[in-house]
Amino acid sequence: MRLFVSSGWDFKMKVDSMNYKLMIRLVFLVSSICLFTLGFAFEKKGRPNILFLTLDDMNWDSMGVYGSKVPKITPHMDALAKKGLRFKYAYVQSPNCSPSRNVFQSGRYPHNSGLVGFYNVQPSFKTLPEQLKENGYITAVLNKPRDSSMHGDYDQFWDHHEIMKADRKRDAASYKRVFEDFLERVREDKKPFYCVVNVADPHKPFFGEAASKKEGMDDFEPSRLYKTNEVEVPPFLPEAKEIHQEIADYYNSVKRADDCIGSVLEAFRESEFKENTIVMLVSDHGMALPFAKSSLYPNGVRTPWLVTWPGKIKPNTVEKRHMISAIDFMPTILDLCGIDPDPTVDGRSFLPLIQGREQAGRDKVFVQFNENAGGNPSPMRAVITKKYCYVFNAWSNGERAFMSASNFHTSYKKMKKMAATDPKIEARFNHLQKRSVEELYAIDKDPHALKNLIDKSVYKSIVKQLQSTLENWMKENQDPALDAFLIKEDPEKLNAWFMAEDKSAELRAQTIQWKRYKNRAGGTGKNKKLFIK
After folding, report:
1. From its phi and psi, is residue 383 left (phi > 0), alpha (psi between -120 and 50) or beta?
2. Which residue of 65, 140, 373, 451 has the fewest C-beta atoms within 10 A of its own C-beta?
3. For 257-265, what is the mean pLDDT?
């Protein structure tokens, strides 16, 4: 009996022991799952938000921290710069709107994404907002979704998109409202966000101009108005009363752009997202005046570039050792968000630079212009270092005139008029129109690209070196303009190449969906196809 009881008791103890061990293992398993899930949740919650602020047609040196002499011109942007990092040598890839903006979202040179002009492209790759959406981000573009997207089906790229009407996109209060509306959606969706805010200023028409008044944009006055005696005409333009007034109007629009940025940042500071958001700010290209926008000179493609990251970047830091450009934006953002960058992108992450480290191979950038908003091609390529800017103009034949939006503005018209009586301005104006097949500028000494050194014997070795650098890049990146570059010394062949490009551009204008309502072929409403690269 004792044996039976003892055996039964031993059996019970063994069963209890087994149950206890099973229970412990079960608790451990459940705990592990909970901890993993919780950790994953924390990881997701900890992933940074991205706020990307862009200015429209603002020159790189128009901000106070980038050397502007206009008093108190950009206090909001300057304050943002002093909270983080600013790059001294930052560039966009293209000096006109849609091609430039889509480099940021594609990580590809325009000739590789297919979007070299102002038409809609069906990409064969995942854009930045698409990759972020697939990885749990909510994506948004506030103002200019047309020029921030490869094609017109914005839902493919953006969870949230808003077109701001002509007058309201110059209103600081409207930017705060649309940004706050988006943040409400973020709170509902409980996801990290990637939000692009495209401020319309200082794009034409400038504040105070007749078109601005007609379209109601002058109803939104900048917080301060500047007179002509408070601004200087940039060295790449001649001094004249009309030009000086256009420059004052430009800076009044820069001031209003800063007001708009300030309103967005105010809403941002008032939100709960300010501690876990990386903010970047750039301009899409240079000011809408001759020798800036639509040119490959520094005033066309150089941009301010600010980065803030709470607790990660030392305030008021200036990065002046390396060169970055728009193709690097996408891989950098993905890197910051913990997402493996697409190996097919043309750029590379500059996260090491944000972290204060060195990065090899950042001593040059490559830029390009292909065609204007009307579909008229003027293919150009350039390689830019800290010292030099070498430009190849595949369209130039000594007779053909360059066409851009600035042809319709005051400074161009006044230069043309002054050229009739002033030989120096005549030479400068003729260069603006006709260029030459090749150009070279020592931009460390001549930052406004005023003196073309291409025929100076002392620079012969520099020219050869930069020619070789550009040719190798064109080969590596499968640039179709390589064919033109290889025949640049044969005017007849080069002209024949250009005429074939012109026919291709005309065909696109006639058949491909356009980002503008009209082009060289007329109205674009009849165009139904997407361009497929």
Report:
1. beta
2. 451
3. 98
